[in-house]
Amino acid sequence: MSFDLFMQYLTNGISLGSLYALIAIGYTMVYGILRLINFAHGEIFMMSLYFAFYGIAIFSLPWYMTFLVAVLVTAALGMLVERAAYKPLRHSPRITIMVSAIGASFFLQNLAVVIFGGRPKAFPTVPMFTKVIRIGNISLQALTLYIPVATIILLIGLHFLIQKTKTGLGMRAVSKDHDTARLMGVNVNKTITVTFAIGSILAAFGGIMWGMKFPQIVPTMGLIPGLKCFIAAVVGGIGNISGAVLGGFILGVGEIMLIAFLPGLTGYRDAFAFVLLIVILLVKPTGLLGEKTAEKV
Amino acid sequence: MKKSLLVIMILLLSFSLVLSGCGSPAPAPEAPEESETETENGETPAAEGDVIKIGVFEPMTGANAAGGALEVEGVELANELYPTVLGRPVEFVVVDNRSDVVEAANAASRLIERENVVAVIGSWGSGFSMAGGPIFETAQVPAVAASATNPLVTQGNDYYFRVCFIDPFQGVVMANYAYNNLGARKAAIIREVSNDYAVGLASFFEDAFVELTGDPDAVVAISDYQTGDQDFSSQLLNVSNQNPDVIFAPGNFTESALVISQAKTLGIEIPFIGGDTWETPEFIEIGQENVEGVVFSTFFDADAPLTDETQVFLDAYRAKYDKEPAAVTALGYDAYILILDAIERAGTTDGPALREAIAATDGFPGAAGMITLNADGDAEKNAVIKTVQDGAFTYLDTVSPE
Description:
Chain A contains twelve helices and four strands. By secondary structure, chain A is mainly alpha-helical. In chain A, strands 1-4 form a two-stranded antiparallel ribbon.
């Protein structure tokens, strides 16, 4: 394999990985604070694409306005899902809430089929993001350069929010113990709502970037990216935001390189993600960057 | 930590079951009815006799939904023009097979057991027809596929017929096009490996291309992807690295459009050719200017009317939808009128008798050409070669079977 070709594979891997990373951040953030794996995250991601699609296709808003509106509507949807599917189960065992999350995920998917129809739609792309740039013999889309930058900005922003603001302090308190946090004067419900809103904003942001790269939307498209980003979050150490980014890149580059070096395995790229998950769970269940936390029994 | 590990493992297992069970994530078979079953009435009320129900077995949701919708348009139009047979009103019942082979078997059973249809039209996507086939055969309900081209749909199944040509022919047509018109001597294949249609067509193309070139290594690379995949960059690099003269990429229209778009992004200038599934509006909407110039084989071209029925169909279609029909729409229309003709000739809707009548179809004028069914129940028809030009499907050539 020539150096140029290798670099092209690597570029493609990083491009895919940065998308996984972006979506995995939202997953891991909700987990880190609520200890809840939000399986509806993939569907919220899918919904954000439809919101953006209708913003451009029907209301013909300029793209930046559309994205802003889509992100805000998605945040509202995230809060609604939390309110309807998780809040009534606040004091139930964690497994109950997780089953409710899976239910919410299937509900949203079928709702999208009913409302938006099952036929695939073409996502309107913006030339600024999709134009092809050639560096030497390597070609890439402009968004391949933007996404990692956006991911780093979001990482810094989230870090600031969680570590330096009062809301962030509340989030950290809630992540330790709901009841004690409430005794300390933290508005637990509000904190959880904010967490979901931020998680959904991240999903929407990842969703729109995803739509730019793969301009095709169907109601069932949330499942595989949702699972892959969940895997990325677990590989990096679920609950750890930098870990999610690392996991996303490992998954993206790994998938691409698997096909590059073992072309016979092209049909098995999804299996690669699941095998990676199993290996990580067996070898290092806390993930690569996950901290060891003693759990109360 | 142990507890959450256990939870993760349980979830992983349950999700992997969902994934291995079906290509697209459809929920359990007992899903609610309102989203997938639509009943459309013929205008005449059931005064002079019982309603004759014809099942329409198509993907209405999921990856292949656009194809299913195009065929249903044809059936709907035919039903409006010909709403009765034997003096009884005809009603068609659409059941969604969700672009999923597991769900297709459930949908087929629903047509037979709950809807009590006398015949079935469909499905777009040979794999779904193959999943439903044994169910129709056991129930002795004849089925007529509109555009399912894999030979195994009708082979060994006395109750499955089709109004289109089959893939061994289509593979030869495209291999000839690549060899003669494009001057290709080395070809590569990118196929949708989870789709029986694409795998079958790819192998017929390969056989024909190897025979034409006389070079056993004429197909330099075969790369696979799964239905629903969105990133094809490594497959494309693997294939283009072997420097083929042409890439044959049979598969679903959305994935194919993304494959071709991503090839352009990667700077790959090798021409793409494909099969009949590409002729859907979504293929051009998603692929945009990237799919300009691709060439594929299909069934029918509206600019070259074949029979008197073609004109009837075209006039009615243009009046109703105000656009040009796709080939599969004409075939859906043909499947419906063929069944009606057979019911007329059989004088009954009894399964075995109706089957005999359909099998005896000879020189029946359909919208997409004369239909004569051979011993396997396949129609032998010309193939039409089309390209994409200025954002529209454009006629290139007609090829007849030798």
